């Protein structure tokens, strides 16, 4: 059977909603066809974060060079730091039939929407703004100032959720993962409808 080109799955949502937690849970499940695209950032590593695993950590100069050289599928500045997606990896994985996950904020997602119209756009939403604040504070990785800026950004990000194909509430991690897996399976089935091999099959049997 010929392999479909892999999906480009964009997972967005405000800082602290649980994108990283949900994505790690999805990737820990057996029999998935997912690849995670590690982003570039100028943010400093948090305790425990590893270069080339969590992010490719770059200086601002290095990042600006990548922009100049057109090596990023999208990039954005979020609360004082650059973040961007390496283009080559995404294309290579999709060509190999793998579904590629981008975990990115809303400005970058809008750029991907314009460049990759067949992408699958999923917005992860918190049960409430209070839950979001509790999670962001509970994670304990940012200073109070940064938390306040991220909560401010969250209000604008939540207003963008209507631009996504799906909104998934992250009430419980397992439930959010079940919904995301279901969306991806449905998306593959939808794309099967236009697979050439089915038209060929019908012609052969005419
Ligand atoms: N546009 C864009 N956003 C990204 C990329 N990588 C991460 N982000 C987003 O940047 C925001 C800040 O990321 P980070 O500092 O790691 O904080 P965290 O997501 O709250 O743990 C989050 O919304 C990420 O999803 C990227 O390659 N491009
Ligand atoms: N469904 C959930 N219920 C309660 N806490 C959650 C849930 N999902 C994630 N968290 C917690 O919220 C915090 C932020 O999650 P994280 O995955 O780092 O968010 P993001 O990547 O969107 O910034 C973490 O401490 C995580 O353990």
Could you explain how this protein is built, in words?
By secondary structure, the chain is of the alpha/beta class. It has one domain (8-204): Rossmann fold, CATH 3.40.50. 46% of the residues lie in helices and 19% in strands. The chain is built from eight helices and nine strands. The protein has helices at 19-28, 60-68, 87-95, 106-115, 129-139, 144-159, 173-192, 196-204; strands at 8-12, 34-36, 40-41, 56-57, 72-78, 81-86, 99-103, 120-125, 166-169. A five-stranded parallel beta sheet has the order 2-7-1-8-9, sandwiched between helices. A hairpin with a 2-residue loop joins strand 5 and strand 6. The longest helix is centred in the last third of the chain and has 20 residues, at 173-192. The model has no long low-confidence stretch (mean pLDDT 93). Bound molecules: guanosine-5'-diphosphate and adenosine-5'-diphosphate. The site of guanosine-5'-diphosphate has 16 residues, from helix 1, strand 5 and strand 6.
What is the element layout, followed by pairings?
Blueprint: E1 8-12, H1 19-28, E2 34-36, E3 40-41, E4 56-57, H2 60-68, E5 72-78, E6 81-86, H3 87-95, E7 99-103, H4 106-115, E8 120-125, H5 129-139, H6 144-159, E9 166-169, H7 173-192, H8 196-204
Parallel strand pairs: 1-7, 1-8, 2-7, 3-4, 8-9
Antiparallel strand pairs: 3-6, 5-6
Helix pairs in contact: 1-7
The protein binds guanosine-5'-diphosphate and adenosine-5'-diphosphate.
The site of adenosine-5'-diphosphate has 14 residues, from helix 1 and helix 5.
